[in-house]
TrEMBL record:
Belongs to the TRAFAC class OBG-HflX-like GTPase superfamily. OBG GTPase family. The gene is obgE. The lineage of its organism: Bacteria, Bacillati, Bacillota, Clostridia, Lachnospirales. Gene3D superfamilies: GTP-binding protein OBG, C-terminal domain, GTP1/OBG domain, P-loop containing nucleotide triphosphate hydrolases. The keyword Hydrolase applies. GO terms for molecular function: GTP binding; GTPase activity; magnesium ion binding. It comes from Wansuia hejianensis. This is GTPase Obg. It is found in: Cytoplasm. It holds the Pfam family GTP1_OBG. Mg(2+) binds at S172, T192. Monomer. An essential GTPase which binds GTP, GDP and possibly (p)ppGpp with moderate affinity, with high nucleotide exchange rates and a fairly low GTP hydrolysis rate. Plays a role in control of the cell cycle, stress response, ribosome biogenesis and in those bacteria that undergo differentiation, in morphogenesis control. InterPro entries: G_OBG, GTP-bd, GTP-bd_Obg/CgtA, GTP-bd_prot_GTP1/OBG_C_sf, GTP1-OBG_CS, GTP1_OBG_dom, GTP1_OBG_dom_sf, OBG_GTPase.
Length: 432
């Protein structure tokens, strides 16, 4: 079974709670606080596995959770960190937020391993809260809660060349002849239900990867037939071989077929439709031209070659013309950018913190009028998941303050440039 889509629920580990305890030893009359910190919750990590080519295992299991961090212990013992959960996926898998459809991560190119949900930070034990005026703190910090998210996984195959065309034009036959692929071939529509990948080896060339995309039909971009399900697989290809039945063995007009399929590509994604194409006019072994009749291959050439689209007459059954077609494709690929098409992230799970309706307060420090204090569960949770030492983390922090309305409330409270903002032991100077 080929599975190229799945919907799963992922959950990071909760941070372990900090511990409240006091040193109790013989001859030590008043031992201080010795409650240890809680362990960090496990992360949810996606990792590319070269041995996988489907998402089928995610059709059977739908929920994946990392381990919670352990609670801190007595005698300053730190709780054990929770184990990460590592989800292995084939290269080319795109992880999307199921509600918005926005890209979280694309497991392609150099991106082989990515943390998608971070585990909660462990809470601090009461040993951290001892001060000259509070020598017996009887409280500890709770561990941060887990994050949970429903994501959609989509496999968009990675190939240099996409092989497109109406059903039954001979794509699978061509792929089986030119590569190591072994597609199932039969004489009925939509015989190919899986995108078949094959490696084309050419003498004197480096070769390329070709994907036989299941037969498209008119209306595919709007969900007709199964076409829409497979259009995603040509999103990464650098060029396309557009295959037609030049002999019209099923009564279709090959010129009209090309225009129809190109319109479907345009409707689905205009950028894909603009990529280089070459036309493989197949089944020339079945062409019969009556005296004075029109040669269908010449008609294709007259129609498309003035537009810069080369036409190669071939027979996938006999092999005629295939070598010329493949060497032309290789030459085109040599002059096209070699970078894999990678989809940029559009959704960041940390942004869920800004949308959560958790309380917070903004107040002016009575003892230091130029200092403003921002506290509450919303702030504490955000700080636990954000690395302020990194440029990306600090940019997220600034975006969070703006989108959550905190900056606006600080301005309404009278903050001025150069004033200090304090959040749980962290202090920042305010500047617009």
């Amino acid at each position: 079974m080929f599975a190229d889509r799945a919907k799963i629920i992922i959950k990071s580990g909760k941070g372990g709670d900090g511990h409240v305890s006091f040193r109790r030893e013989k001859y030590v009359a008043a031992g201080g606080p010795d409650g240890g910190d809680g362990g960090k919750g496990g992360d949810v990590i996606f990792q590319v596995d070269e041995g996988l080519n489907t998402l089928v295992e995610y059709r059977h299991s739908r929920k994946f959770s990392a381990q919670n961090g352990e609670e801190g212990g007595k005698r300053r013992c730190h709780g054990k960190d929770g184990a990460d959960v590592i989800l292995k996926v084939p290269e080319g898998t795109v992880i999307l937020d199921s509600q918005t459809g926005k890209v979280i991560a694309d497991m392609s190119g150099d991106n082989r391993r990515q943390i998608v949900l971070k585990g909660g930070r462990g809470g601090k034990g009461n040993m951290n809260y001892a001060t000259p005026t509070m020598q017996v703190p009887k409280y500890a910090q709770p561990g941060q809660p887990a994050q949970e998210l429903e994501v959609r996984l989509e496999l968009k195959v990675i190939a240099d060349v996409g092989l497109v065309g109406f059903p039954n034009v001979g794509k699978s036959t061509l792929l089986s002849r030119v590569s190591n692929a072994e597609p199932k071939i039969a004489n009925y529509h939509f015989t190919t239900l899986n995108p078949n990948l094959g490696v084309v080896d050419l003498e004197g060339c480096r070769g390329f990867v070709i994907a036989d995309i299941p037969g498209l039909i008119e209306g595919a971009s709007e969900g007709a037939g199964l076409g829409y399900e497979f259009l995603r697989h040509i999103e990464r290809t650098r060029m396309m071989i557009h295959m037609v039945d030049a002999a019209s063995t099923e009564g279709r007009d090959p010129v009209e077929d090309i225009y129809k399929i190109n319109q479907e590509l345009e409707n689905y994604n205009a950028e894909i439709a603009a990529r280089p194409q070459v036309i493989a006019a197949n089944k020339i072994d079945s062409i019969y031209v009556e005296e004075g009749g029109e040669d269908p291959v010449q008609r294709l050439k007259d129609e498309f070659e003035p537009k810069g689209i080369q036409v190669f007459p071939i027979s996938a059954v006999t092999g005629q013309g295939i070598k010329e077609l493949l060497y032309y494709v290789q030459d085109q690929l040599d002059h096209l950018p070699k970078d894999t098409v990678v989809f940029e992230p559009e959704f960041f799970p940390e942004d869920m913190l800004a949308r959560e309706n958790l309380p917070y307060t903004v107040s002016r420090d009575e003892e230091a009028p130029n200092t403003f204090v921002v506290e509450g569960p919303k702030i504490e949770k955000m700080l636990g998941y954000t690395n302020l030492d990194s440029e990306k983390g600090f940019a997220f922090f600034q975006k969070f303050l703006s989108e959550s309305g905190i900056l606006k409330e600080l301005e309404e409270a009278g903050i001025q440039e150069g004033d200090t903002v304090r959040m749980y032991g962290l202090a920042f100077d305010y500047y617009k």
